[in-house]
Design a protein that fits this description.
single chain, 652 residues, alpha+beta, twelve-stranded antiparallel sheet, four-stranded antiparallel sheet, 14 helices
Length: 652
């Protein structure tokens, strides 16, 4: 396993080449070959990202996507706005129906709100090296801090899911108000409220949430909402805990149990982050990305969802709204590379074996996406009762891309297998046979039309990037076969790979543009062509790949932002710049030796994260408003890959 040197530095800055950062307090540094660093004592994200802001300015009840932070427990995750409102939570799992969906309908979605009852300013950040969120509200009357976490359970009996909100008085006396407005089943199922054992219970069918309050007032129910208030003096504290049950009796924890699990959770995250290995110039951005990705891991299976949300729009008011609470296997190579290089071995191995197990259901054909349990039942439907984020309808659950043919996934999967083999050094015989069957399938089907990496809903065609990734698939299969990891049919696979290269270089190249193009019948530039350099479809320094990177910059770049393409894709409406593509450009520049440009762009992109270091899928280049589902796993994976590519290029 890799054991690189690891250091820390502020998110919006990077280390100069040849220098190592040593924090003035709680400093730690490791050297190659020694034990992993313990980031639990490192300079914390809560220190580098804490920023004081006025209260959230909502538009028609909607907070900006940029205003959210994420907490989670390895099964599901909650979005919390800067004003203390939990506006998104699905139970019991990340792909289950929502209980809070105010982010998709300000009136009917439901939320769990907690904020001062007087004007305030906000300062927030994650605890050091953690996914526990701290929000400090500053008022003329005093200051309070809210600690939010989805708690992790120990060995004792505990709720199926538990959301803890601890409030501490730091100075003065601050009045606060809270309200719980659960709306089960995306707000479509009737909710019943009653009191049991002195606590409020909300239930619908087999689902139930129970609110426990300690020193926070009992609250009253009216029109389906439970509301209450409290005042906290300096040194006092209160706890509100939401316990969830699904098809089982609800557990009613004591305050002691809730706070014990909160303390366990606060210890867990720095210990987990202490395994991360990175020795580049953007350590805190990389570590925050790793922590964000950990929240997207479905712990029971090892699957990693693309994002924990559905239907956040790629442009306000348009219909480009999709459900991302599934695992896209094209992300496999980015995921394995990031996890292996960061030293997060358990998650890397779990994801690899989930990938191989899930794909077994359809092998040698591979599905585009899978549910976290490995199934493929993701039929897309519209929820017409929900208005959509800021009126951006429709709200969709499920994803119709599951039925598409996307040939690039084969390159991503076989590259991931190659990365895993290089790291572990062994693949069992049955898995090796499956690999060979997948490679044989690519040899037979690379000539098929497909919908491409961007899942266009127009007529299928021969996308250049898809064909190039088919070449990658067969190239990696040859390497695996030659090293005994799978049956060696490399002569046949190499012949097919040569045919693919001949097609791509003849039909996918445009002399006038000096670049590869989107498809033979689409003579335009596509940012996915950057992956040809990243996946080593030939030498990244070759004239053709240098020309392709230059064409992406010329045609699709706007400052630090890169659009996916300019042409039609079968979906009505505009979209923002795609943040992953910007990080891909950094990656490609580094691989082509343009290090100064890569570093400069990386600095700009790192500065675009929100106040807690998270990224969405897309961004409006003019307003810099986040767009699309949030936080976006592929964006954070691309950040990690770009950071590593710069580090590798500097070492070369």
């Amino acid at each position: 396993m890799r054991t690189p040197t690891q250091t820390w530095v502020g998110l919006n800055s990077r280390l100069p080449r040849g220098r190592r950062y040593r924090p003035a307090v709680h400093a730690w540094v490791t050297t190659p070959g020694r034990n992993r660093a313990d980031v639990s004592t490192a300079t914390s994200p809560s220190s580098w990202r804490r920023r004081q802001n006025p209260a959230v300015a909502r538009t028609d009840g909607y907070a900006a996507i940029r205003d959210y932070a994420l907490v989670g427990d390895g099964r599901t995750a909650a979005l919390i706005a800067r004003d203390g409102a939990i506006d998104w939570l699905c139970l019991p799992n990340v792909d289950s129906p929502s209980v809070f969906a105010r982010i998709l309908d300000a009136d009917r979605g439901g939320s769990f709100r907690l904020e001062p009852a007087v004007p305030y300013e906000v300062e927030r950040g994650y605890q050091r090296s953690s996914n526990v969120l701290e929000t400090t509200f500053k008022t003329a009357k005093g200051v309070v801090r809210v600690t939010d976490a989805m708690t992790l359970t120990g060995d004792r009996v505990s709720p199926l899911r538990e959301l803890c909100r601890k409030v501490e008085g730091l100075s003065g006396t601050v009045p606060l108000r809270w309200s719980l407005d659960p709306r089960f089943g995306y707000g479509l199922r009737p909710t019943t409220l009653d009191r049991r054992s002195g606590r409020w219970c909300a239930h619908a069918g087999a689902d139930c949430v129970v609110l426990g309050t300690w020193n926070a007032g009992q609250g009253n129910a009216e029109s389906g909402t439970i509301s209450g208030g409290l005042e906290l003096d300096q040194g006092a504290s209160a706890v509100l805990a939401l316990s969830a049950a699904h098809k089982e009796p609800a557990v009613l924890p004591s305050r002691e149990d809730v706070e014990r699990r909160l303390a366990l959770t606060e210890r867990f995250w720095p210990e987990w982050a202490g395994r991360i290995q990175y020795d580049g110039a953007w350590p805190e951005a990389v570590v925050r990305s790793a922590l964000a990705l950990k929240l997207l891991v479905h712990a029971p299976s090892g699957a990693i969802v693309a994002a924990p949300t559905s239907s956040l729009p790629e442009w306000i008011g348009c219909g480009r709204n999709w459900d991302y609470r599934f695992t896209w296997i094209r992300d496999a190579t980015w995921t394995l590379d990031a996890l292996i290089r960061l030293g997060i071995d358990d998650e890397a191995h779990a994801f690899f074996w989930w990938l191989m197990h899930a794909s077994r259901l359809t092998q040698p054909k591979l599905q585009v996406l899978y549910k976290v349990d490995g199934s493929t039942h993701t039929k897309e439907r519209d929820l017409s009762r929900l208005a959509g984020y800021r009126g951006s309808a429709p709200v969709r659950v499920g994803n119709g891309a599951v039925d598409q043919v996307q040939l690039d996934v084969y390159g991503a999967v076989l590259d991931a297998i190659w990365l895993y083999f290089q790291d572990v050094g062994h693949i069992d015989g049955d898995t090796g046979k499956e690999i060979a069957k997948i490679a044989d399938y690519v040899s037979r089907h690379w000539r098929d039309r497909d919908s491409g990496i961007w899942e266009v809903r127009a007529e299928a065609t021969h996308f250049t990037q898809s064909k190039a990734l088919c070449w990658v698939a067969l190239d990696r299969a040859c390497k695996l076969g030659e090293r005994g990891a799978c049956p060696d049919r490399s002569v046949r696979w190499r012949a097919a790979a040569d045919e693919i290269r001949a097609f791509v270089d003849a039909e996918g190249w445009d002399d006038k543009l000096g670049s590869y193009v989107r498809a033979p019948d689409l003579r335009e530039i596509d940012a996915s062509l950057l992956t040809m350099a990243i996946f080593s479809y030939g030498d990244p320094m070759s004239e053709r790949l240098r020309g392709t990177v230059a064409a992406v910059e010329r045609e699709l770049r706007q400052g630090p932002f890169v659009f996916r393409y300019r042409g039609e894709d079968g979906v009505v409406g505009e979209e923002g710049a795609f943040l992953t593509c910007s990080f891909w450009l950094v990656d490609a520049l580094a691989r082509q030796g343009r290090l100064d440009e890569a570093r400069q762009l990386m600095d700009e992109l790192v500065g675009l994260a929100n106040d807690v270091g998270l990224y969405s899928e897309e961004i409006d280049p003019e307003s810099r408003e986040f767009l699309g589902n949030f936080p976006q796993g592929l964006t954070h994976l691309a950040l990690v890959s770009a950071a590593h590519s710069i580090e590798d290029a500097e070492k070369r």
